[in-house]
Amino acid sequence: MKEKYFQEIYEQIDVPKEDVQNSIRNGIKRAEFSSKKKKRSLRGIAVAAILLVTTITMLSFSFPSFAEKLPIIGTIFELFQDDEKRYIFDEYESHSTYLNMTKESNGVSITFTEAVYDGENITIAFKMESEHDLGEEPFIEWDTPQAIITAMFSGSQLIKKIDENEYAGILIFNFEKGHHPDTFDFTWKASKIGTFDKEIDQTQLINTIEGNWLFELTLDNIGSQTQEFDNLLSKGEGMELELKSITRTPISTSFYTKEKVSKNLKEWEEENWSAVIFDYELKDNLGNEYTVVTNGSYGNHQYVMNGRFMTTNIAEEAKSIIITPIATPWKQVDEPGRKYGTGIAPARESFKLDPIEVQLD
User: Fold this and answer.
1) Which of 82, 118, 140, 191 is the most exposed place for a label (fewest CB within 10 A)?
2) Which residues form a coiled coil (predicted)?
C-alpha cells in the first residue's frame, strides 16, 4: 500500500533537470504550499496525505444537498478515511472548534466548518459549492499568513468532489518543533481556484476562478506534552536515523527525527540516487500497530534532514513504542510523452533499518 501511495504522489511531481534533489523535495506544489514561502528544502512525500484534523459535532449545513453526501454520524473528516490509512482522524470529534463561517465570491462559496489547534498542527475542515464545475481535483491558491510561515514545517490541502459542483476539503498546517502560543490568531485569504493539467504543466493552474475568500480565526491550543531523547539511533546501509523527541496531544502523537545519509555512498552515482525518503512502522510493547503519516523533512544540507511523522494516540497501557525506519532511494527517470521535467521512480526496493525501542513516560 505504501509503495502504491508513494508512486501516486511522485506522479504529481514536476522535476526540472536542474538541481534534482531540491526539485524532488520542493516539487509537490499541488499538495504542499510551504516551500514557496520558506527558503529551505522540504521532502513532501507525505504532504498530500498529511493529516491531523478535526472532527466535530453534527453540522448544521446551509446547503442541504451537500449535507446529504456526508456521513449520517460524523463530519467532513470521515469522507477522507480510506482503506489505505493515509490519514488519522480518530480523536478529533471532542476537541474541535465549531466555526460555520461562509465567504462567497464570484459564484464560489467556501464554508469553514470546524478546526483544531494542538500546538503541533492547525487543521481546518471546509465545504465548497460553486456555480461552475471546478473539476475533479480543484486546488485553492491562497496567501499563507505570516504567523504560520514563521512556525510552519509543512502543509497541505485535501479536496474531494462530493457531487456536481460540490466539494469537501481539509487544510492542514504542520508546525516546527518548539513552543507555540496558547491562542493562535491568523488570517487566511484565498484568491484563486483552479486545476492542474497533469499532461502539460503541473505547476500552473488552469480554468481558474479568481475571487476574495477572507477568513479570520482564533483557535485555542488544546495542549501537549513533549518527551526529549539523547542518542536514540538506528543505523544501517550508510544511513542513520535519530529520534529527537515525541510530542503527545489529546488527538495525536508526533515524532521528530534527524535523518542522515552518507554522501560517500557509491549509489548516488552508480544508481543515480536523487533522494532518500524515510517512512516508518510503529507498534507498542502490547503488539498494537499504528498508522503512520509522514509530514516531510527539511534542512540546509542534502544529506542531513530534520523529519517529522505522526500517528494517533498511543495506548494508555503501553510502556514502550518500537519504531522501524524504512528507507526508499528515489531517482529521476525519463518518461516518454512527458512534456515538462522528468519522472521519478524508486531506485531500489525499500529496506528497513534496525528498530528503535522507546520507553514512554
Assistant:
1) 82
2) none
